[in-house]
Design the sequence.
């Protein structure tokens, strides 16, 4: 049981990142335990966070979670339910109101300014992370994905199409247009799931894509569009296999396969 508890501690540390934000959260939580008298607010800002944290660190909870879910890699998601930001914000504002009642409006404003500075100094700049980037559009996905999808997407009322994308783009396509069906998606990108897909194996070659093998596989799967990576070579010119280049977007060649289109019509009319 102790080992399971320590695993939960490690998961918690990895989830929260910096210890300073956790310190602010615990300070705000401790203050609200004594200062908050409203039942509903106390339930939201005190009872719920405390209950969730106790359940998270309780070894039996983790054992049940693993038993039900089949794996424990997503156990950290329980912490998504803990409203750390809300507790810090509400606790800070409530403390500032308390200061205002005792010391006046000027001290309240100074207290709020100090708390805001503490939150900023205890955090990290979000765009410093390799996993974060500034939004390029309203969809909050790379603009190159939108541009590629707009090139190959079926017109309104037409049947959905099949396409193959490089690994680095598959996360975003379905977020933008569900009329574009992919031969493989996120399940192929995550190594832990150990799925095997022949088309992905060819596309994921570290240096050169075997075009003959790729085209043979995509035509078997009724795939009419192929988007090639922008950082790999090809064994042969795609046009040698009847592919038509529609556009090149940020280095990604976008091809249409009229042979696959014809085969699709012959198979399904």
Sequence:
């Amino acid at each position: 049981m102790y080992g399971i508890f320590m695993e939960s501690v490690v998961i918690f540390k990895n989830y929260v990142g910096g210890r300073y934000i956790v310190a602010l959260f615990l300070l705000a939580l401790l203050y609200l335990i004594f200062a908050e008298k409203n039942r509903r607010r106390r339930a939201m800002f005190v009872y719920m966070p405390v209950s969730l944290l106790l359940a998270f660190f309780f070894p039996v909870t983790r054992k049940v979670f693993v038993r039900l879910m089949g794996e424990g890699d997503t156990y950290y998601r329980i912490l998504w339910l803990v409203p750390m930001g809300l507790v810090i914000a509400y606790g800070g504002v409530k403390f500032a109101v308390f200061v205002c009642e005792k010391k006046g409006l000027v001290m309240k404003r100074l207290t709020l300014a100090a708390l805001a500075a503490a939150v900023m100094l205890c955090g990290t700049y979000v765009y410093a992370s390799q996993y974060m980037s500034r939004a390029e559009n309203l969809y909050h996905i790379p603009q190159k994905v939108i541009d590629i999808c707009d090139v190959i997407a079926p017109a309104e009322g037409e049947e959905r199409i099949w396409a193959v994308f490089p690994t680095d783009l598959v996360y975003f396509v379905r977020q933008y247009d569900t009329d574009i069906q992919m031969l493989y998606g996120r399940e192929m990108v995550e190594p832990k799931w150990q799925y095997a897909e022949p088309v992905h194996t060819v596309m994921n070659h570290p240096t050169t894509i075997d075009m003959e093998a790729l085209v043979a596989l995509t035509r078997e799967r009724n795939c009419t569009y192929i988007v090639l990576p922008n950082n790999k070579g090809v064994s042969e010119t795609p046009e040698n296999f009847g592919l038509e280049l529609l556009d090149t977007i940020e280095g990604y060649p976008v091809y249409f396969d009229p042979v696959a289109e014809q085969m699709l019509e012959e198979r399904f009319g």
The mean pLDDT is 86. Residues 2-128 form one domain. The first helix runs from residue 2 to 16. The beta strands are 161-164, 180-182, 208-209, 225-227, 233-234, 244-249, 252-256.
